[in-house]
Amino acid sequence: MKIVNFSKDGRARLGKVVDDDVVDLSIAAPELPQSLVEILRQGAPALDRLRAVGRTPGAELPLASARLLAPIPNPSKYLAIGMNYRDHAEEARRAGVPIPQTQVWFNKQVSCIAGPYDDVVMPSVTERMDYEAELGVVIGKRCRHVKAEDVRSVIAGYLVTNDFTARDWRQRSPTWTLGKSFDTHGPIGPWFTTDDEIADPHALRMRLFVNGEKRQDTLTGGMIHDIFHQIEHLTTVMTLEPGDILATGTCSGVGVALNPPRFLKPGDVVRVEIEGLGHIENRVVDDPQGIEKTGRPEPALATT
């Protein structure tokens, strides 16, 4: 089951993807909340009602003509793990960055979330904007102290993410949060795909293209810490809530690790594809605030 958040008549609405169409849930199932997070909070009864929705006269529109928004615009948390693919860790090691011995998590502030085809702003205060294709996991129920073997029961589904990063700001902030959280630097989508549609989340092909040139290409099985152990680790510390998003790491091929480094610039189009989950595509645009860049010492390059 694939659920979209889309704009119609100036309002955000939930829709269910049926073949090449979107069924507007505000018409087909008006008793359901118009928020994916609220549906997840209601649990099995709401999800069962959602699964029962089919083609509905007067509620359908072509998927190709729908303006898709971020499927989950308001999670309580958007967390991401660093250096979690073996090949990415190795390219970082070659650049002199030590490979972490434990899971390294950071916040992407939820204000960074953008839609799957929205423009992404290159801040005027960075020269080193980079991309990171990542599989996003969506939590389905409130949970704490979940064992790895039970994690699948708390996963609601998946989406495509791009962890855009201002590398210079990332390096200057020990917690990484500032360099990972500029507004628009968290596009997600194109829809939310329920867990039952994905046989093995560690067997999906993930690719990223810049202006049609392939930069990243991997299978999600290349993770150092798999999704189940990620969630076991996190829930040792904190309660995860329905709708929380976890970005599970990126593979080799990030711009900072190329020789020479190749950072993004206005006009670039970045596309991330994940098998079974669709794709997102975002154009990099100039900062509309037009703040002048200020001189500053050049920091050493960081690859995470």
Write up what this structure looks like.
The chain has 304 residues and is an alpha+beta fold. The chain has 2 domains: 2-69, no CATH class; 78-286, Fumarylacetoacetate hydrolase, domain 2. 16% of the residues lie in helices and 32% in strands. The chain has helices spanning 25-28, 36-42, 44-52, 86-94, 167-172, 177-180, 227-237; strands spanning 2-8, 11-18, 21-24, 60-62, 67-69, 78-82, 104-107, 113-114, 120-122, 129-130, 133-139, 155-162, 165-166, 186-194, 205-210, 213-219, 245-247, 269-274, 278-286. The strands form 3 sheets. Strands 1, 2, 3, 4, 5, 6, 7, 8, 11, 12, 14 and 17 form a 12-stranded mixed β-sheet that branches. A 5-stranded mixed β-sheet has the order 9-19-18-15-16, with no helix packed on it. Strand 15 (205-210) and strand 16 (213-219) form a beta hairpin. It is globular. Mean pLDDT is 92; it is low at 291-304.
What is the element layout, followed by pairings?
Elements: E1 2-8, E2 11-18, E3 21-24, H1 25-28, H2 36-42, H3 44-52, E4 60-62, E5 67-69, E6 78-82, H4 86-94, E7 104-107, E8 113-114, E9 120-122, E10 129-130, E11 133-139, E12 155-162, E13 165-166, H5 167-172, H6 177-180, E14 186-194, E15 205-210, E16 213-219, H7 227-237, E17 245-247, E18 269-274, E19 278-286
Parallel strand pairs: 6-17, 8-14, 9-19
Antiparallel strand pairs: 1-2, 1-5, 1-14, 2-3, 3-4, 6-7, 10-13, 11-12, 11-17, 12-14, 15-16, 15-18, 18-19
